[in-house]
């Protein structure tokens, strides 16, 4: 069995390298991302939808006329995703495809980034960590939401060495969703660069300056229309108390389900960094995991909010690769990836828990005559 798996792994690696040699890494990254995206569809088959739900309908409506301030929109502050969809003529029923398209680009970006320093199989496994978990799976449960673009911008900000590009990515993320505010600390602080304090301070100043266009835009919106998600909407005792009461029961399940078994790569990475006395890495990983908790004070979609912790998962994978080498680390990730496919997928939001049979179980039930759609 082990020999057969090794043969399959080598064949897969050879085919990916042949693909990259023929079409280049960038285009090959898109092909691999599409394959992983299809696997993600299979994983949550009973919950697949292309019809915007909840706030997704508001984003869809805003995409029709994103700059027409004559009609009130609850999500007018969060204009970036509807605006880009409008520019690309993905409006009306087509709007739902835009966040999915961005999800494919996000997966491709993760593969491309890791491929610069790791093997194809390791890079595929890391890309699978985001493709087959909440950062992408949420786009099927929360159809039309702008989260995938936020993740792509956060990722671009983290991997870029250009301060201007980092600032631009963060500034755009502020126009996409309010939760970019919670990403500010881990986007500014970068222990792996070993940069001087003055450069971190400069980045913080520039990131704070990036708030200016957003503040001016929001003032303009407020002078022309009424929106729902104002600071007063979030920062009041009744709302905060209701949020905490709402998430208390299902928060542990929602947090675990965000990455399921892949959460375990973080403790391993933390242990390695503690032993090496790399306290900056330890602090950063803890920060990335803790910041989503603050969002639970202001809103209730646990499954969505904790997907923002994906940089901790990716960085932990990179640390594993550095410490154990490519062969051992990719075996670890592929083992987790295979085991994760059998863990039921739950989407936890507000007072709801949506259950999905894992794709492999769904197909096995189909073989013995049980329709998973009706369970």
Write up what this structure looks like.
- The chain is mostly helical and 375 residues long.
- The chain has one domain (21-374).
- 69% of the residues lie in helices and 3% in strands.
- The protein has helices at 2-23, 25-43, 55-64, 80-87, 97-115, 120-131, 134-141, 147-159, 163-176, 180-188, 197-209, 211-224, 231-234, 237-248, 251-259, 265-275, 279-298, 302-305, 310-324, 326-340, 359-367, and strands at residues 345-349, 352-356.
- The chain has a two-stranded antiparallel sheet.
- A hairpin with a 2-residue loop joins strand 1 (345-349) and strand 2.
- Helix 2 crosses helix 5 (97-115).
- The two termini are 34 Å apart.
